[in-house]
Amino acid sequence: SHTAKFGSPFQSLGQRHRSKTSASSHNPSCSPMGLSLLILLPLSVAFNLDVENPAVYTGPNGSYFGYSVDFYMTDSSVSIIVGAPKANTSQPNIREGGSVFYCPWSLSQSQCSSIEFDIQGKSRPVRPVDVEFKSHQWFGATVRVHEDSVLACAPLYSWRTMEDKPHADTTGSCFLSVKNFTKFVEYAPCRTEFRGRKGQGYCQGGFSADFTREGKVVLGGPGSYFWQGQVITAVKQEIVKAYYPGFFLTSVEGQIQTKQKKEITFDDTYMGYSVAVGEFSGDDDEGDVLSFDQVSILNGSLDMLKTFTGEQVTMCSVFKFMVRITSRMMDLLVGAPMFMLRDSDGRLEELGRVYVYMQNGPLDLTPQLPHLTGTQTFGRFGSSITPLGDLNQDGYNDVAISCPFGGENKQGLVLIYNGHAGGLREKPSQVIAGQWASATPSALPASFGYALRGGKDLDNNGYPDLIVGAFGADTAVLYRSRPIVNTSATLTVYPTMINPEEKVCTISRGNETLVNLSFCLSANGKHLPNHLEFNVEVQLDRLKQPQKGAVRRALFLDTQLPALQRTLTVPNGARVCSDTKIFLRDEKDFRDKLSPIFVALNFSLNPQAAADRYDLRPILNYQTAELIEQKAQILLDCGEDNICVPDLKLSVHGDRKEVYMGDDNSLTLTFNAKNDGGGAYEAELYVVLPPEADYSGIARNNESLTQLTCSYEMENQTRYLSCDLGNPMKSGTSLWAGLRFTVPRLKDTHRFVQFDLQIRSKNENNSQSEVVPYKLEVVVQSDVILQGVSRPDKVFFPPPNWKLTKNVMVEQDVGPSVQHTYELVNNGPSRISHTLLQLKCPMKLQSNRFIYPLEVTTEGPVNCTTHNIVNPLNLKVRCCGLTNPYKSFILKCLASYKVEKMPYAILPKVTPSGAKKMVTPVVWNKPDSTYAVPLWIIILAILAGLLLLALLIYVLYKLGFFKRTPYGTAMEKAQLKPQAASEA
């Protein structure tokens, strides 16, 4: 569909057909849009095109400036030629006739000017004015340069035949300038007496064109003879001789052309769609390479030598064009820009492909595999191919391949492929992206890379350059090649085995373990400045995957830093070296003693260096290793080979085997770590925690346990604990230590919780112990207690003033109240979802009512049912009561419970159950009315007691009990004096 929008010369093909096939069978939307065929010279590396400072030339808007490009270099001028097939010119009454522009090159970049090839104007003076039709003729669609000559063609040029039929023949026409634009002649070999579809009426001569090495013109006319197509060649000197202004039909001496095939099977083969020139037959006579859905090699006499057919020979998968690669013999490159490949889902994607055929001998062409396949869907990879010349002077050519609708916003890509003795490398060394937007965004893309031309050294700096056309943006871009610097670097570290015990006294640091470091750079190349400046950086011990908390183990002695930066000036073709010293840090400052200490040298050309006289800065050969590494090893106590092989063993014990649902489940794991082999460096206990567990700390309740240093970390959703066991963990080490955990997040979906423990070291050999799992069984268990209390704890019956009555109205009429309270407690740890509590009490005694239930009250999520009616008489409720008791008895109630369900998928090992007896003693009271004591007996008893007391006092008086001497006897007095004196 792009072709119809672009107005490609090919769009007129297929609109008329020998067998009256509908136009859809020759859908111009499938056209490869004027692709070209080229012969290449040997390939090389191409990575040095200066994309930062290109020379950009622009033409009139909408002119398709850049549709075709070529170099124009003479002794007196250096420029590029750009075709603009839709440009308007000064020719009267001609719309979009097309033009060719001359664009001189210089560092200041001058403007382009139109070249007047056709000075005849609209028509020839000797013919009627409507004989020629030059509007929309696409003059400049094809331009080719040979020495001081320029060939420019208008493939859609039309003229009315001499029979004056109502239609014109699209024969195509070309103009040839010679002697630096001092003479212009027209060359229209398809404008002959063979008119119409059966002849050369739709030839479109100049649709493709090329020059041989000697300057012979080769034209392709894909529309001749019912679109069989043809190739026409003539010597340019004879073309100049045969030209006579005013004559339509001319005869060029020595012109040869392919003939019409009589077989109808040759129709629609479009020979001449793309042409290129090279040597394949071994006779030193350049043959022509022609193509559309096939590639044919013709000799200088246009006899068929060899034909290649593409994988997808359909109108929309064009197998087309291109040539040349290695050292002595021509090679062939063929582009198929609409090649389709199935993606991973089986759908066809148009990616484009370029086939490379290496010439082993005359016409002995072998395909290079794998083929080069594009990566941009609908990018038209292979639309244009050009040889670039030997950019890095290694004897092989480079190739530029376009992808004009690829890249960001479909602005186009040009990919540079390197050559070598075996052909083309599979990956491009440089990808140039178009930076120019379309001049008419709604109509077509910028098409950067649609036209390519390379292999010429425009600025004379010794390296060939590249022209890229972007006709959708009316732009042509010149990329110049930068000089290539071939560089080699060396890095030396001595000693490579560092002994931390060997220290040297230094002025700046004291006693240090020193290491010598030396690095050298050499540079050479063609067309380089006399001196090259390099930025050099040396990095010490920079790990590719830095560990947490890792430090640089070595530093530069002078700067105390892990990096050194210097600028080296290297003469072209010379070698320059630099020496310095580094020192090893103290062993207590780092852990890693096993890993090599890498020393990395990185270098680059100084971007601030002055440009050369061509305003270009050199570039390093892309194959140069800009990063060089050496390493040194720390000497270990591991024997002559410096390799330690540990023998690590681990045993684990825990203070519990079960964990309970609902509990925090504190756990202490005690382990024994042993090493029966060589030293284990950076040895650690590695504990993988299950999701249900948390780390609490180190066990410190036992002096025999080693106090470890542990860190708790997470990596990829895995929580783990790492504890330092020594660096190194020496041979014969055996240590005990303990770790504390909790396991609070148990789930009933897992029957076990597992800790995985392992000793790990950084040793290269036998660095780990076996993984020791410690399993805990997940258990459901609850401790249930049933408690009860009686209020009051003893009942006296009958209560005061109580009388047995048949008409019971209120609670007091029943008897004394008794309240039994029961409490069911779950002390856990697991939860209970359903428990049955049963209460049994004696409701009758010897056929008499014994207990009258008045009310049942509950607290919490409890539902109660009873076999007896509570408060059958509807009394005012305060509590339950006792009725018709006997003299003495005990009220006994039995409460029992059973856990029927727990909310876990795991069943408990023991189902909680139990019972509780509630005892309330009942004491009998005698009635007050039957056994009362008379009042007079009480008064008489009191009077008798008083009389007896008076009689006793009288008797004592008579006996002298109340008549004692106040001072006592003389002896008593004598005994009292000292005591009295003492007391005084």
UniProtKB/TrEMBL annotation:
One of its GO terms (molecular function) is integrin binding. FG-GAP repeats lie at residues 48-112, 126-186, 368-426, 434-496. Keywords: Calcium, Cell adhesion, Cleavage on pair of basic residues, Disulfide bond, Glycoprotein, Integrin, Membrane, Metal-binding, Receptor, Repeat, Signal, Transmembrane, Transmembrane helix. Residues 1-14 have a biased composition (Polar residues). Gene3D superfamilies: Bicelle-embedded integrin alpha(iib) transmembrane segment (1.20.5.930), Integrin alpha, N-terminal (2.130.10.130), Integrin domains. Chain A, domain 2 (2.60.40.1460), ntegrin, alpha v. Chain A, domain 3 (2.60.40.1510), ntegrin, alpha v. Chain A, domain 4 (2.60.40.1530). InterPro entries: FG-GAP (IPR013517), Int_alpha_beta-p (IPR013519), Integrin_alpha (IPR000413), Integrin_alpha_C_CS (IPR018184), Integrin_alpha_Ig-like_1 (IPR013649), Integrin_alpha_Ig-like_2 (IPR048285), Integrin_alpha_Ig-like_3 (IPR048286), Integrin_alpha_N (IPR028994). The keyword Nuclease does not apply. The chain crosses the membrane at residues 935-957. Its main location: membrane. Residues 1-46 form the signal peptide. SMART domains: Int_alpha (SM00191). Residues 784-877 form the Integrin alpha third immunoglobulin-like domain. Residues 481-637 form the Integrin alpha first immunoglubulin-like domain. GO terms for biological process: angiogenesis; cell adhesion mediated by integrin; cell-cell adhesion; cell-matrix adhesion; integrin-mediated signaling pathway. Residues 1-29 are annotated as: Disordered. Residues 638-778 form the Integrin alpha second immunoglobulin-like domain. It comes from the Eukaryota. It is found in: Membrane. One of its GO terms (cellular component) is external side of plasma membrane. It is a single-pass type I membrane protein. Belongs to the integrin alpha chain family. This is Integrin alpha-5-like.
